[in-house]
Amino acid sequence: MSRLIFDIETVGIDFEALDPTSQESLLRYAESAEEEQEVKNQLGFSPLTGEIVAIGILNPDTDRGAVYYQAPGATAFEPLSENGTQYVPASEKEILKHFWETIRYYDQFVTFNGRIFDCPYIMIRSAALKLQPTKNLMPNRYYDQHIDLLDRLTFFGAVRRKMNLHLWCQAFGIESPKSKGVTGDDIARLFREEQDYLTIARYCFDDVKATKELFSVWEKYINIK
Questions:
Q1: Of 7, 57, 119, 130, which residue is most buried, by most CB within 10 angstroms?
Q2: Which residues does 6 contact at the CB level (< 8 Å), separation at least 6?
């Protein structure tokens, strides 16, 4: 069975670019300036108010991977290869085209929290950009076509608290993507203010590599059939 691991990074759109009705709707329940800022900081969590700035993919059997990432305005950016991983700058639409073209050749995909975040986000952003999917990323939750490790490691909700990727990595002795000083909270700043696009791409692939190691633990010690 051919398998592919993937992960995405997202950022919110400019709040001021939204129409007044959308702004009012988003801020409806904010009761202070701090709460209003929190709403604006979380725009990237929804595909209706955010966009994909990177998708990292990795074949766990060949250890070959790639990251397609946005680098707007950076005309000097060209594809880069590091340790067998290709880093390819592209627009959001091109990122998604690359993703759908790649995933059509795989039978199983692996994510961490992909059913709740990555997969619906990818499908909705693709629809918004008028792109046709090549695979159903949201099949029956209990089929093996999609292994969402957060689902599997918590036994579909039997474990009381789900926890994030960092804590699961810590528990199993896996290097966390956050060990290099970048977290998901930094992505918007790196993208909008610092324009440090390659750091975002590398962080995305670190997430993918950690997911691969976590997948190996699940397969060897937990997925008993």
A1: 7
A2: 55, 56, 57, 58, 99, 103, 109, 110, 111, 114, 118, 208
* Domain residue extents for the chain: 3-8+52-222
90's tokens: 């592209």
176-203 pLDDT, tens digit per residue, is 998 888 999 999 999 999 999 999 999 9
Is pTM beyond 0.70? Reply is yes
| C-alpha to C-alpha distance for 103 and 163, rounded to whole angstroms | 28
**How many helices (H) and strands (E) in the chain?**
8, 7
Average pLDDT over residues 197-216: 97
Give the pair of three-digit tokens for residue 42.
Answer: 């979380």
Architecture, CATH, for domain 3-8+52-222: 2-Layer Sandwich (3.30)
Cα separations (Å) of 164 from 116, 123, 182? Answer: 13, 23, 15
